Amino acid sequence: MLLTITLVVSAVAALYVYLTWNFSYWKKRNVPGPSPHPLFGNFPSFILRNHPIAVEMDNVYREYKSKYNFLGVFSTRSPRIFITSAELAKSILIKDFKNFHDNEFGGMTDKDLDPILGRNPFMLNGDEWKAKRAEVTPAFTTSRMKSLFSIVEDVGTRMTKYIRQNKNTPLESKELAAKFTTDVVSSCIFDTDAQSFTNEKSEIREQGRKMFDSSFLFVIVMIFMSLFPKLAKLLKIGMVSKSVEKFFTKLMAEAIHYREKNGVQRVDYLEHLISLRNKKEISDLDMAAHGVTFFIDGFETPV
Prior knowledge:
oxidoreductase, two-stranded antiparallel ribbon
């Protein structure tokens, strides 16, 4: 019994040391910043997903913006620089961007384990990031964005109708925004009507929920991948389930097949991806990854 207790206490102590030994990183360099918490660092919501991480970042920004141009913070146990000066941020994003384009997410994903998320430009570093960014940038020209307005307007009309039909029923604003975004993004990317306002069990909406899972199991996986990225890769732990991966890959393939078979012409993101495939011969998985990237960027913002 005593041996068991000793082993447990030793394991807990070792874990605590592992999680906190680097917390003196910024103090040693005389860089100001808020005190981190074991396991979570300065931004618990990144792991817990109990509220938008932007709220925590905004709280830190408002507390320190008048005192310092930058801070030292921690993402779980890893040191990060938090910029509070607009001029410094501008310099980093423009003049000195070549030194800052990599991000921490690049080390958390693996293209073999997460073939879709692992191809997201936001998850890539170096030359891979540069190549993927070059592929998607032409899709967001002013003329292309203007051409999508009719799609947004059409979904807005459907949402208005939905609200009027349920005027005597309380509606969750977060879910309402998610339905709107799902329909807009699905139409722009996959040329598909997600039917979020007419079908409460819309398949695309359900897959979107799975992708942005906030269950206890997902939280545990996120913590593990953040703290032990190499071990997570060794154990083949991914962030996106295989069912979600297969769904969006199939959805993209079907959308391309339908458009090419029926000669459909529409200036949208899908048209850009088809053109890109014809020029560079990118794979169906790359196509699906680009589609999911757009889906995540559009979907995650309001929800």
